[in-house]
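Entry 14: structure prediction run for Gfo/Idh/MocA-like oxidoreductase N-terminal domain-containing protein. Input pasted below.
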Amino acid sequence: MSTSSLEAQAQEAEVGSGALLPDGPVRARSAKIGAIGAGAIMADQHLAAYNEAGFPVVAIASRTKGNAERVAERWNIPTVHDTPELLIEDPDGAVLMLGTMFAPIVDRDQPDHGFTHHAGDVVRISSPALGSLVGQVQSSEGCAPWTFGVAALMRNLAARRLL
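Run finished. Output tokens:
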């Protein structure tokens, strides 16, 4: 399906109707990924999706190297860097993926263990141009499957003339 036909379908979709288009086909899987973070979002969501899609994750780093080593072993990631800075400097990684677009920087439960949401936490992400996304944290087993990918989001925003 061509980009123009996807755009035409997006424009035809009724805003707020809940009718969403599936993500378009993946055009390339050659970009190597370096993952920053080894928490639940990265380990259970991002890396699972990259693995399912066949994207090569070549390196990982976290503030706690032991966490990065455990996640690397789980997902067969060949290189674990001592720090995120060393991963950024690694010439083998082309795309850096963070565990979340909005990362708290204060430790929550224990010093040097980072921030992790707990069940029941209310999370609010907002932008003056796009509004707010508010959700309550729960385990993935208790959530409906996520089917609204990044391409669908961009089409939805474009259809509402927010891009």
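Notes: Strands lie at 33-36, 57-61, 79-80, 95-98, 122-127, 131-136. Will compare against the previous run tomorrow.
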